[in-house]
Write a structure and sequence with these properties.
Elements: H1 7-33, H2 36-57, H3 63-80, H4 86-100, H5 106-111, H6 117-125, H7 132-142, H8 148-155, H9 159-176, H10 185-207, H11 218-234, H12 239-252, H13 278-293, H14 300-312, H15 322-336, H16 339-353, H17 355-365, H18 376-387, H19 391-404, H20 408-418, H21 428-431
Organism: Methylocapsa palsarum
InterPro entries: DUF6596 (IPR046531), RNA_pol_sigma-70_dom (IPR014284), RNA_pol_sigma70_r2 (IPR007627), RNA_pol_sigma70_r4_t2 (IPR013249), RNA_pol_sigma_r2 (IPR013325), RNA_pol_sigma_r3/r4-like (IPR013324), WH-like_DNA-bd_sf (IPR036388)
GO molecular function: DNA binding; sigma factor activity
């Protein structure tokens, strides 16, 4: 066991370990049990066990292995208490013995062309039997480890609504007996849009965290990019898959420049572009070219990737093709009818036609129910008001944005602006 610290330190270490290990635990138990909701429940049991034991005994030298062993033991105990599942227990024993012998399962490999446990689990949870609004929420909560609050922020919905969707989807998944499976052909194609949405939302949470003390969660960005690359190898002729990969690569290329030494946000127009990752930019541009060659340049992910490419191609802020970005956002808005996209368009319009034209768009969005608690609406409004010389109105808008923000780094930035400390022109998340 590692040296023990204070109980609060140990609890933070447990939760940090849990964020990293939970998807792997759920995937492993799902493979063993062929039951995704049960696997998720038992991984939660392993977390409870860690919270009970580690503060007393100290953090294990290999905390991930400890959680895995505990989760598997709980799975075996559960099945022993359930006589009807004796056959499954025997299957698990065979599975464990095979893993201990470290011999590859060639039959399973031949049957599973996905070849990635996490991606296969996402395809399972995105089953068409589940209502479309629930698929991504369930997957993000159960498999990817995002909190209900983080998922609610991603969908701009109340936490209670998202929680109800997740509970109902879990119940439906359990009652229907949906198997842990590898979908193929038309069935896989039906699930692909939901899988893309899940990967996209994982990346977004990593790119700008909904909650907590850190603005970035790079491990989520990396995992989403990895899943995207696996999906490209699986569906090489799907333009939107290439579009999503392009979007993630281009946005992630800026991560090293997006925070200062203490983790404070550095906004898009103030970043040191020499720190942008040129290799990732090249990969992103190549993926975008492939998406466009396949006819996907006007899709949801392809359009966003094209916007990110405008930023990536600009060696300095003043070189940015804001007119092109505004036009791309106009196409994206027509495609999605999303008030968030319109808010993004307002940022680009301000750079092309001035803050007054952009403020007109923002004021029109004030009544959108989806943006009622969205902190970036008053944040953008505050910036536009400041540029128009309406300083006191701007400070009030920034104060409202700070009150709505749930990420500590963003809240601190907005509070500084509310006190009159000038920051850069636009929020990084909206600027690209």
């Amino acid at each position: 066991m590692a040296a023990s610290g204070t109980e609060s330190d140990i609890h933070r270490a447990i939760l940090a370990t849990w964020r990293i290990e939970q998807p792997r635990l759920t995937a492993s138990l799902s493979r063993m049990l062929r039951d995704v909701p049960l696997a998720e429940e038992l991984t939660q049991d392993a977390l409870v066990a860690a919270l009970e034991r580690w503060p007393k005994a100290g953090i294990p030298d290999r905390p991930g292995a400890w959680l895995m062993a505990t989760a598997r033991r709980r799975a075996q105990e559960h099945l022993r208490r359930t006589p009807m599942l004796t056959r499954k227990l025997a299957m698990i024993a065979v599975s464990l013995e095979a893993e201990q012998n470290a011999m590859p399962d060639f039959d399973s490999a031949l049957d599973d062309d996905i070849g990635d446990e996490m991606l296969r689990l996402i395809f399972t949870a995105c089953h068409p039997l589940l209502p479309p609004p629930s698929r991504a929420a369930l997957t993000l909560r159960m498999i990817c480890g995002l909190t209900t609050g983080e998922i609610a922020r991603a969908f701009l919905l109340p936490e209670a609504t998202v929680a109800q969707r997740i509970v109902r989807a879990k119940r439906l998944l359990s009652d229907s007996g949906i198997a842990y499976e590898t979908p193929r052909g038309e069935e896989r194609a039906q699930r692909l849009p939901a899988v893309l949405e899940v990967i996209y939302l994982i990346f977004n949470e990593g790119y700008t965290a909904a909650r907590g003390d850190d603005w970035l969660r790079p491990e989520l960005c990396d995992e989403a990019r990895r899943l995207g690359r696996v999906l490209v190898s699986l569906t090489p002729e799907e333009p939107e898959v290439h579009g999503l990969v392009a979007l993630m690569e281009l946005n992630a290329s800026r991560n090293a420049a997006r925070t200062g030494p203490e983790g404070d946000p550095i906004l898009l127009m103030d970043q040191d572009r020499r720190r942008w990752d040129l290799l990732q930019i090249r990969r992103g541009l190549n993926a975008l070219a492939r998406a466009q060659a396949l006819g996907g340049g006007s899709g949801f992910y392809g359009l966003q990737a094209a916007i990110a490419a405008c930023h990536a191609r600009a060696s300095a802020p003043e070189d940015t093709d804001w007119a092109g970005i505004a036009g791309l956002y106009a196409h994206l808005s027509a495609l999605t009818h999303s008030p968030v996209v319109e808010l993004n368009r307002a940022v680009a319009v301000a750079m092309v036609a001035g803050p007054a034209a952009a403020l007109e768009i923002v004021e029109h969005l004030a009544g959108a129910p989806e943006l009622k608690t969205y902190h970036l609406l008053p944040s953008v409004r505050g910036d536009l008001l400041e540029r128009l010389g309406r300083v006191e109105d701007a400070r009030q808008a920034f104060a409202l944005a700070a009150a709505l923000a749930t990420n500590e780094r963003e809240r601190a930035l907005l509070e500084r602006r509310a006190k009159g400390s000038r920051a850069d022109a636009f929020n990084e998340r909206l600027g690209g």
